Amino acid sequence: MSAAAAQVTESSRNVVKAVPAIETAEGAGATVRRSIGMASLRNLSPFLMLDHFTIHPGAGFPDHPHRGQTTVTYMMEGKNSHEDFMGNKGELGPGDVQWMTAGRGVVHAEMPVFDPDPAKAVPAVGMQLWVDLPKDQKYCEPSYQERKAKDIDTVRPKDGVEITVISGESHGVTGFVRPVGGCWYFDVKLQKPGASVFQPIPEGWTAFLYVITGNVSVGPDGKPFPKFNTLVLTSQSGENGVLLTRPGNSTDEETRFVLIAGEPLEQNVVQYGPFVVNTQMEARQAIMDFQMGKNGFERAPGWRSEIGKAMR
After folding, report:
1. 82 labeled part of a ligand binding site
2. Domain segments of the chain as ranges
3. pTM of the shown model
């Protein structure tokens, strides 16, 4: 086969829907910008929720359960601590990642960590993504993966382009996470006006990006979208990736966004708070299991996190 025949033609996805992330209260005194999971953007399988959170002193997410999904927490500023009833404990700083698969059940707490000097206290800012689990993996054993920023691979495929590879494959680099179900997660920075990159994405997968700072255009002729927008991408036959560009006249702040893709699941979704299952009966069973401490929640009765005790 010739080199020309072996070369794959790049065919970019485009934006099919843009949804502003609206600020809303969540947890105990925390604020999140939520897009996926709101009425304007549901049924984006396998993705259930996307929050861009900011946690100030006195707020947080004390002890609470999960079943049937994966939660991915990616820190950008400040620090956030985690503790669960499996005995896992961790503290996340800027660029650190926690990838927790709840499976049949887990109870945990997520609380910010602040400098004891109020003048130096920095809010905990990051992203949390909820990913549905395939029906046959809903009741798997829970698992927990954590990685520090310094240990997460970054690739620079072109001048002015930096991609942190958390999960999936980008320009010869494979992310450290081995997720249950298909899910790719990248932090992309376009550091110069006009910087552009084509990121391959498996054909047929659901894909979106969330703009953290700056402006970005999608596709060869796409208009720029500003920060705090979730951009859902097309998924047409033959589209094998997405062309991402920082506008040439964008000279103020760096363009940064997370690009996330996942294999859609052909299954019913019944969500009752932190429980994500497939039928109403399973939702009722999840509530009973948590309350009675069985079928995955055996360690829940009497368990109290240390990090959440200030809010009890």
Report:
1. no
2. 21-147, 152-267
3. 0.94
